[in-house]
Structures are given as C-alpha cells and as structure tokens.
Amino acid sequence: MFDMSKSKSLDESQDVASLPVEAGEVGDSIDIQHDAVFGDITEDGPNYRNVGWLGTAVLMIKTQIGLGVLSIPSVFDALGLIPGIIILITVGGITTWSNYIVGVFKVNHRHIYGIDDVGELLFGRIGREFFGAAFALFFTFCSGSAMLSVSIALNALSMHAICTAIFVAIAAIITFVFSSIRTLGHISWLAWIGAICIIIAVFTVTIGVGIQDRPSAAPRGGVWKSDYKLFNNPSFADAASAISSLVFAYAGTPAFFSIVSEMRDPRQYTKALVVCQTVISFAYIVVGIVVYYYCGSYVSSPALGSAGPVVKKVAYGIALPGLLVTAILLTHIPSKYVFVRILRGSNHLTSNSAIHWITWLSSTFGVTLTAYIIASSIPIFGGLVSLVGALLGTLLSFQPMGCMWLYDNWARGKEAPTMKWRLMVGWCIFVIVSGTFLVLAGTYGSITGIIDSYREVGGSAAWSCADNSGST
Description:
Largest sheet: 2 strands, antiparallel
Number of domains: 1
CATH superfamily: Hydantoin permease
Pfam families: Aa_trans
Organism: Penicillium daleae
CATH class: Mainly Alpha
Family: Belongs to the amino acid/polyamine transporter 2 family.
Protein name: Amino acid transporter transmembrane domain-containing protein
GO cellular component, one term: membrane
C-alpha cells in the first residue's frame, strides 16, 4: 500500500489554474528550458512543451470521442433510454473528476510523465511496471481497434473493392507515418481535423435517422414505428458490458498524463478539461438520445451505419479522416511512453541524434506493427477489445485517481480533519470501490459476450478478406 505519510499535499481548495509558476515552467521567450521529464529543451531539438490550452482541449476530445461515441446508441438500447442517460452522466462526472486530478497531480509532482510514474509513487517498482504495462497494452489495443474502424470505413466507401486485410494494412501504414511526428504540439492540428470530422459525421447520421422512413436494419415491409424503450431489463452480463462501453467512451484519462506533460503551461489544464468534457458529453447525450429514439433496437454498431446506405457512405466519408487521426493519436501516445521510458535522463531525449531517431521510429513502428497484428489476426476482435477496455480502461481511469488524491492529502488532512476532507476521503473510497466493481463486472460481461458471439458465428478468420462494414 502506498505511504501517505510521505505525501506532498495540496490545499484541498487549490485549483491547477491558481498554482504559482514554478521552476521549470515553459514559456515562449526562453531559449533553453529545463523540464522535469524531458530535461533541457533547446532550439536544437524537438520542443516537447509546446501545446497551448486550446490544443490540449482538442487532443483530449480526439482521444475520447473517436471510438466511444459510435457505441452510445447501442448502450442505450441495452440499458433503456433513461437509465442509459443517468449512467452516462454518472460515468462522465466520475471520469471528469479523475481527469481533473491528473492535472492537479502533475502540477504537484512535475516529474510525472505517465501513469507508470504514478504507480511507482503509490506502490513502488511493482506499481510502476504494472501500470506501465497496462497503459501500453490498453492503448495498443485501442490503436488496433481504430485501424479496424478505418478498414470498415474504406469497405463502406468502396463497396468492398479489395480485401479487408489490405485495407487494415493501408490504415497501419498511414498510422505509422503520421504517428511518427515527434511532438503533440505538431499533431494538434491533425486532432482539430479529426475531432471536427467525427462530430460532423455523427451528427449527419443523427439528422439522417430523423428524416428517413426507418433505420437501415429495420424490416422493409409495413408501417415502421421505433421500438425504443425508456427502461429495459438486461441481464447482468449485458448491463455490465454496456456500462463498460460508457467507461470506454470516457477512458482517455490515462492519456491525459502525456498530454498535460507537453503543455506550455500545465496550470491551464483545467480550462482545457472543461471544454473537452462539455463537448464530448453534449455529443454523447444528443447522438445517443436521437439515434436510439429513431432506431430503437435496430440501431447499428458502429452507429454510422444506422441511417441507410447513402447516409452511411456520406457519414463514413466525413468520418474517415477522424478515424485515421484516432489511430494516429492512439499509436503516438503509447509510442511516446516507450520512447520516454527508454531515453529518459539521456541527452538523446531532446536532441536530433541518430540514437534519438532510431529509438523514436522503432517505438512508433513497434506499436503500429503490434496493433496491426492484433487487429488482423485475433478472431472475435470486437469482443476482445471490449474485454481489454473493461479490464484496463476502467482500471486506469478510476482507482489510481482516488489513490492519487489520498496520497497528496491524507497526511496533512488527518492531523486536523475537516468535513470537506472527510467527504473527499469518502468520495475517493467510492471511486476506488466502484472502479474495482466495474472492472470485475465488465470483465465478466465481456467474457460472456465473447463466448456467446463465438457460439453464434464462430468468430472470424485471421487476416480475413471478408467485408466487415455490413454493406448490402
């Protein structure tokens, strides 16, 4: 268990934006800067501290909204409209607090780069290796899922013109090239394009399902009336799997360590976070309600296929750049983790040396190749990604943040406990316990879903050429 007696506490009322400038703060007017993670940053190498607050907001948005928003209507179908909205808002609230704690903890511990550093503070070397492995595995699987979503889009647009395995390979090649851009500051312009494309695409489908006679998957004959339910009665496994999908939709939290580490001024993190969570929560709620209301149980997953073949092609055409950016960003983040882990403390980290470039390109290539192999070779891939999301996405977004607040505030608070301190301790315990429950329940639901899916369709072949877009 972590030693809270040695914690460096923040005043409970302190906000990231109100903290004073400290040594190592990066500004535009300084020629040589020292960062607690990257070391000396000079004009002779990449500037890893060059993301403004607005760029930070769009990187956060793109990390989360790329894949998660496409599953929200199906979640509402499983849970019912009202429970779905309530649970979505609850999960959004908890993860927003978790995301806020990431920024607070970073300002209080400037040497933190990733969740593995947090794990070492809380639980020692074992915590470092465990959380580091979980982080790399989670985002590599997410990268593979994003590559697969690109292949679905290409199949939908081309009417399955070539083998799906080739489309996945094309997605992997593009991902490797653009994920090898070295800094998030230079990737933020891609995140703008990606976020705008995904948002326009999902709202195109949202409008499309409202003006069309019936959803794409609905029976063709007779008068159509949506069979949406305000309340549903799912099995425990189905409910757990649906809730895990909502957590996955907000599970960009562990990536926010990397993003805040490349901000020019981490004290502006909270402002970026408010913009991010407001935008994605609004999109999730509106898209989920409207698409499910008009489609009912005939909602498609991903949701872009719900409004018929014409709107489907339009939506995938608009979304394709956004899906590619999702793959790029979700590959860059674990690659950067591996890169920093290897070269941290070395001058090669911020130089343009041969060792720097070989290490960096090896990191991006290794993560891209692993994600490609996962996406192409593992049968019942969707179920496996759901399993990893339930097992690791929740684990990295709930429990560590409760422990982080306790680490920073337990020692000083227990000497003269206030009501606010007691309530916050109770809240942290709730986040840790609820997160643990969701890990267990979500994992159970995902395993059950994998077994049922395999019994029903027998899984899918490795490197399959079959059309995965559901085109008719």
